[in-house]
Amino acid sequence: MSIRVALVEDDDEIRRQTVARLNAEPDIDCVGAYGTAEDLIAAMGSIRPDVVLMSIGLPGQDGIACVRHLKPLYPSVEFVMFTAQIRLVLEAIQAGATGYILKPESPVAAVR
What we know:
Elements: E1 3-8, H1 12-23, E2 28-34, H2 37-47, E3 51-54, H3 63-70, E4 78-83, H4 89-95, E5 99-102, H5 108-111
C-alpha cells in the first residue's frame, strides 16, 4: 500500500520537483500539490493523505497556522514541515507537526 502524500509549497519549481521526486518512489503516491494552505484545507477531506509536507512561509495562512488548524481535525495525519526556516521549526512542532525536513533535501525519507 502506498503512502499518500500531499504537498503545500508556494514555489512552483520546488513544488514540481518535489512531486516528481515523490512520484518516482514506488511506495509513495502524491495525491495533491498546493500553493496555499487554503487550497489544502479545501481538499483535505477528499484527498485523505497519510502525510502532509508543509512549507512554513506561504501566502495567506502560513504553514504553522494551517497545521494548528488541521491536526485536531485529522489527528492520524502526519504533518512534516518542509522548510528552509529552521528558526520556526519548534513553533511548528508545538502546533502539531510531527517533524521537519530542510529544503532542498529530498523529503522521501521523512515521508517514510
